[in-house]
Specification:
Length: 276
């Protein structure tokens, strides 16, 4: 089958986006792994599949697959690219789009300057929601890796994140410690790992080792998780700019029970077709 796709990115976190509204398309794990390969396939961090909604109150459903073929609940940068995709292809003319995801319903608002604001829903700090094997407490959790204890904040923003506050951001730590925490036995569904350097209460530098992918140029849900973790710990203000390797995201959170709002860009790179 000849598959038509659009290559997109949100701050360098890159996607292949497929229209499964106009024509049904299904992928298996090995097809996704092959397509995501940067030498043997197209290359992407996540595959986004745009489908008709199953609920009449929603405009679309979209499914998200990591490059290792695993299906995930949520993707912040992907949500913004999804909004640009459905508008560019005239699958909708709405500027406020309601979308079903594995995480539940999310709302996307396309603003005049081309940026997209995503209502990401409310975060949870309850370990069982990630899941993370630990007793609930109100603060930081110790996690032992290779005999050393690291303090993490576990956060679910629909998908699971472990946030570590660090003094400096180092390649070796992001890649090696990131990979060990991603597959740590205390996270039975694995976890995305954020390394956050607080610059001041309104700014962070962030690198994310993503579950099922490795380090990416940017992670939208990772930025949301880091900011809400920082607000909960009292390090950050309610509006924060997250500086990622690929650029900046603006995150707002008014506190417990409130939704996180994430604003940032979405870009199309090219269109193509490939045999599945
Ligand atoms: N890049 C994404 C997150 C994609 C999913 C993640 N790797 C997971 O496994 O949960 C983003 O921008 O949020």
């Amino acid at each position: 089958m000849l598959l038509k796709f659009t290559k997109m990115h949100g701050l360098g976190n890159d996607f292949v986006v497929v229209d499964a509204v106009s024509r049904k398309v299904f992928f298996n794990k090995s097809q996704i792994e092959r397509l995501s390969d940067r030498n043997w396939g197209i290359g992407f961090d996540q595959l986004l599949v745009v489908e008709p909604p199953s609920n009449p109150d929603m405009d679309f459903r979209y499914r998200i697959y990591n490059s290792d073929g695993s299906e995930v609940e949520h993707c912040g940068n992907g949500a913004r690219c999804f909004a640009k995709f459905v508008l560019d292809r005239e699958l909708t003319h709405k500027r406020v789009i309601n979308v079903e995801t594995k995480r539940g319903a999310i709302q996307l608002r396309v603003i005049d300057n081309g940026l997209v604001t995503v209502d990401m829903g409310a975060p949870s700090f309850v370990p069982a929601d990630l899941p993370f094997s630990a007793e609930l407490n109100d603060g930081l959790y110790p996690l032992m890796v290779d005999g050393d204890d690291y303090l993490i904040t576990p956060v679910s923003v629909g998908n699971p994140h472990a946030v570590l506050k660090v003094d400096t951001l180092q390649d070796e730590q992001v890649q090696n410690l990131g990979a060990k925490i991603e597959s740590h036995e205390c996270f039975p569904s694995k976890v995305n790992v954020g390394f956050m350097q607080v610059v001041n209460p309104a700014e962070i530098n962030l690198r994310v080792f993503e579950r099922g992918v490795g380090e990416t140029q940017a992670c939208g849900t990772g930025a949301c998780a880091a900011v809400v973790a920082g607000i909960k710990q009292g390090w950050l203000a309610p509006k924060v700019t997250a500086h990622l390797r690929g650029g900046d995201l603006h995150i707002e959170w008014a506190g417990e029970g409130e939704p996180i709002l994430m604003t940032g860009p979405a870009a199309k790179v090219f269109e193509g077709q490939i045999y599945l």
